[in-house]
Amino acid sequence: MTTKGKVLAASCLMYFLFYMDRVNISSLAPIISKELQLNAFQLGIVFSAFAYPYAIFQIIGGYMGDRLGPKATLGLCGLLVGVATIWTGLAGGLVGLVCARTLLGAAEGPAFPTATRALAAVMPPAERGFAQGITHSSSRLGNAVTPAVVAALVAVSSWRGSFVTFGLCSLAWTLLWLAIYRTDKGAEQAALKPVSGEGEVPFLTVFKRVRPITLIDFCYGWVLWTYLNWTPLFLAHQYKLDLKHTAVFATGIFFAGVIGDTLGGLISDYLYKRYRSLGISRLGVIGAGFALSLVFIVPMTFISDLVTAAVLLSAAFFFLEFIVSPIWSLPMDLMPSRSGTASGIMNFGFGMAGIVSPLVIGGLVNWTGNWSLAFSTSIAIVVCGLVATLVVGSRMGFGKGAPAVVVGA
Question: How far is residue 97's CA from residue 26's CA, in Å, rounded to a whole number?
Answer without folding.
Answer: 12
